[in-house]
Amino acid sequence: MKNKGFLLLTEQERNAKFKAALHTKTGGRLTGDEIQEILHILPADKQYEILVYHETDEFCLGVTRMKGARKRLILGTDFQGFKNQAGKLVCDMQSQAVAIAVRKKSSLEECSQLHILIPPERCRKEQGCL
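^ that's the sequence the OP posted. Answer follows.
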C-alpha cells in the first residue's frame, strides 16, 4: 500500500494494519505486550519497512548500515547500545526482543525502517527461524 493510501485510513485502521504486519513479519514471535508497546511508541502516520533478525550480529549490522540515520530504541529495556570490539561493531544486549526504528531523511526521500531482533530462544524447533 502506498503512503498516500495509508494516510487516508483512520488511525485505528493504520494501527490494525501495522499490528497485523508485525505479527506476520515476526511469525507471531512477539508477545501482545511487545506489539502494543511498539504501536504505542511509533506514530501511526508513517509506514515502516519491517526487518526481522534472529542473530545479534545481523541485527547490529542492519541497524548501523544506514549512515547518518537517526536511531531510536522502541523495545528492549536491556539493550545497552553498540560497541566496537576488535574492529567489529557489536550489540550489547541480553536475551529479550529488541526493536529499533531507523529513519533517514534526505531532500529526495525519507526512509523509515523498524529493525526487530527476536531472540533465538523464542524459535520452536518445529517452526525454525528464517
